[in-house]
């Protein structure tokens, strides 16, 4: 990834972190927002696409009560292409030539496995492996039918130490080619699993009240003690 792209993404997040961002999310020039998702766990996500990206690429900007904290891009197979954490800004990219590329198309057939590497611009590297599997169950959230998946993944250091693991349920929308969080158990590497739930509650589209919102509205009091765990979960998963 070029330095220009890193600087542009970092500049976008810094701009969004300003108080004016409370007036609404504005995607970068050449990009168009298409959906805002208010989720449990005190998170709101703004989804957008950019003209200069490859066909099928999609971006997501995640906000908590303090502002934007995460920015990510996936491709048409829902592979995690690049992401940016805030304060300080750290860029992470998927390593080339993954051992087992994630495939949304394969998942639609029932099950998808994956194994790939991630590299941060601070020199840290890790490896992720796991699976997604359709459960056959459909749920309707805010009028939107979503297919439920079961998943497990493990992220390890290059030396083989477990950094984090997660297991649980997520949701997909096959036409949007997007994942959404669900009830999950999370292990930050100490062997004990903690429950978290970032399930979507509202899907908001252009022209509807709440579109481009940057303030989350669900579970924001209850989630305070869990937010570090929840934030980490979002940074290793490609779910949206």
Largest sheet: 14 strands, antiparallel
Sketch the topology as an H/E string, one letter per element: HEEEEEEHEEEEEEEEH
Structural class: mainly beta
Rg (CA only): 17 Å
Q: Low-confidence segments, ≥5 residues, pLDDT <50?
A: 1-8, 17-21, 223-240
- The helix fraction, in percent, is 10-25%
Number of helices: 3
Note the overall shape.
Answer: globular
Q: Termini distance?
A: 22 Å
User: What is the averaged pLDDT score?
Assistant: 87
Whole-number count of domains? 1
Specify the oligomeric state: single chain
Q: Count the E strands.
A: 14
Into which percentage range does the β-strand content fall?
A: over 45%
Structure description:
The protein is mostly beta strands and 240 residues long. The protein has one domain. Strands 1, 2, 3, 4, 5, 6, 7, 8, 9, 10, 11, 12, 13 and 14 form a 14-stranded antiparallel sheet that branches. β1 and β2 form a beta hairpin. The protein is globular. The N terminus and C terminus are likely disordered. Keywords: Signal.
Summary of the model, kept short:
By secondary structure, this protein is mainly β.
